[in-house]
Amino acid sequence: MAFGMPQFTPPQLKPGEVAYITKGKQIGWGVTARLERLPSGDVVKTPLPDLDQRYFEAHCQDMRLEARIYDAVGLHPRISGIVSWDLKTCCLTMEYLENGMLKDYITTNSESLTPQLRQRWAKQASEGLSVLQAAGVIHCDISPRNFLLDGDLHLKIADFEGGSLARSAASAVAGTPFRYPVSDWDAPPRFEEDVFGLGSLIYFIMTDAYPYKDTPSNEVEELYGSRTFPDVTEIACGDIITRCWGMQVSAAEVHAYFEALDG
């Protein structure tokens, strides 16, 4: 043993306690994983520990799915980048995106956002989703929390651990404003449901608000179920939002719509 070197002593745990050795600065915490910023600058996702091995294994399984999705999709500028995958620990290391979640950025900087920037984000969101769908991936949790911004304010879609690959069972479900009411929770997810969420995402990008933002969730579900959606006649891109909510278009068609606007 080398003298003068600090030695790590594991904590003494009481029954019912779980120890976690940090890897870096914590920047997020979800249902499946903990996110930490490493000294290298990258971000590592670690499956949450749990005394119940069944829950821990479910977290690991979600992380394995996310790694498979990254492998299926490959590198793309609209997909958050993967740095490495550790099969043994089920830890996923990814690039750090400086400007964080789209939700937070819009909420904080609403007054300074130009129509051109908002349109670019809508275009990039639809492009990212179309890339996933081309690879057979259903995200299952479309939300401005799961779209991240890099240093140049370009948008990337992230967080695939709860999704579906090649029609596999999903463990995630979108929040009420981004989810078409499901009558059969055992039915496999559909690409169209992600497109519905894309419509709500574009609505948020253009208005800074979730659809029916002050309405209780159960009432929103009833409104969606009766095909009653917010008025978008005065909103930029309202026509494509309506078509997304009607699940009448694919993500690729939404992207082509915004491409034509740029034309």
Automatic annotation (TrEMBL):
Record function comment: Component of the EKC/KEOPS complex that is required for the formation of a threonylcarbamoyl group on adenosine at position 37 (t(6)A37) in tRNAs that read codons beginning with adenine. The complex is probably involved in the transfer of the threonylcarbamoyl moiety of threonylcarbamoyl-AMP (TC-AMP) to the N6 group of A37. BUD32 has ATPase activity in the context of the EKC/KEOPS complex and likely plays a supporting role to the catalytic subunit KAE1. The EKC/KEOPS complex also promotes both telomere uncapping and telomere elongation.
Root EC class: transferase
Molecular-function GO terms, alphabetical: ATP binding; protein serine/threonine kinase activity
Catalytic activity: L-threonyl-[protein] + ATP = O-phospho-L-threonyl-[protein] + ADP + H(+); L-seryl-[protein] + ATP = O-phospho-L-seryl-[protein] + ADP + H(+)
E.C. number: 2.7.11.1
Top-level lineage group: Eukaryota
Annotated organism of origin: Pseudogymnoascus verrucosus
Residue span(s) of domain Protein kinase: 21-263
UniProt-listed Gene3D superfamilies: Transferase(Phosphotransferase) domain 1
Subunit structure: Component of the EKC/KEOPS complex composed of at least BUD32, CGI121, GON7, KAE1 and PCC1; the whole complex dimerizes.
Record's protein name: EKC/KEOPS complex subunit BUD32
Pfam families to which the protein is assigned, alphabetical: Pkinase
